[in-house]
Write a structure and sequence with these properties.
single chain; alpha/beta; Rossmann fold; seven-stranded mixed sheet; two-stranded antiparallel sheet; 7 helices; 9 strands; 27% strand
Length: 210
């Protein structure tokens, strides 16, 4: 399943082509990131542990596994069959599905939380509102959404040469406004400066479905 937009096929193919190498690169991706772990912990505290939570664009599954350790009933969805296969092998007790976050096979008002951990970054700007609308559709009222992305540091939305496939940096205020138009209200935000090996500032938006 590759969703409604043609750009998704290119994204899926690009990640399939580098799946093993990418999984090795990110497998310990939270170890030296205390602010990122704290943001995920805040998401977990805001999200009822009794309801289902989806990590959308889960890749090889390391963030879903972390959310599971935090006590959430989480499953992962990703466009790339190769990455889903790797996630299932590494975390056999968790559920991972091939799918697209712009057209989820989930009933309205089913999920209590969604994490999009650097997965909206590949959505062309004109397409992103549709993703946010889909997130709102599947969340219960009061459900939580965590968006992690590359922040444009006050500039406009900007494409950049991501190592796998074209990605976009967003001004955090613009992204918060788009989420508001899709039916979310902001709980809080974190901006993290890049580490020595990183190029761009990281943004995290924690939101609630109205």
């Amino acid at each position: 399943m590759t969703g409604l937009f043609p750009s998704l096929r290119a994204t899926a193919d690009a990640y399939d082509a580098v799946a093993i190498r990418y999984a090795e690169l990110v497998r310990d991706g939270l170890d030296n990131l205390p602010l990122d772990r704290a943001t995920l912990a805040a998401f977990a505290e805001y999200t009822p542990t009794a309801g289902p939570v989806a990590e959308l664009g889960c890749g090889p599954g390391y963030v879903a596994a972390h959310l599971h350790e935090l006590g959430l009933d989480v499953f992962g969805v990703d466009l790339s069959p190769a990455l889903i296969e790797l996630a299932r092998k590494r975390y056999p007790l968790l559920r991972f599905e091939v799918g697209s976050m712009d057209a989820l096979e989930v009933a309205d008002g089913t999920l209590h939380g969604i994490v999009s951990w650097y997965s909206i970054i590949h959505a062309p700007p004109r397409e992103l509102p549709s993703y946010l609308t889909e997130f709102r559709r599947v969340l219960v009222r009061g459900g939580t959404l965590l968006l992690a992305f590359f922040e444009s540091e006050g500039g406009p939305v900007e494409a950049f040469d991501h190592k796998v496939v074209t990605a976009y940096r967003w001004p955090i205020d613009d992204l918060a406004d788009l989420a508001g138009e899709a039916g979310f209200e902001e709980i809080g935000r974190v901006l993290r400066q890049p580490l020595a090996e990183e190029r761009y500032r990281r943004g995290h938006l924690l939101l609630r479905a109205r």
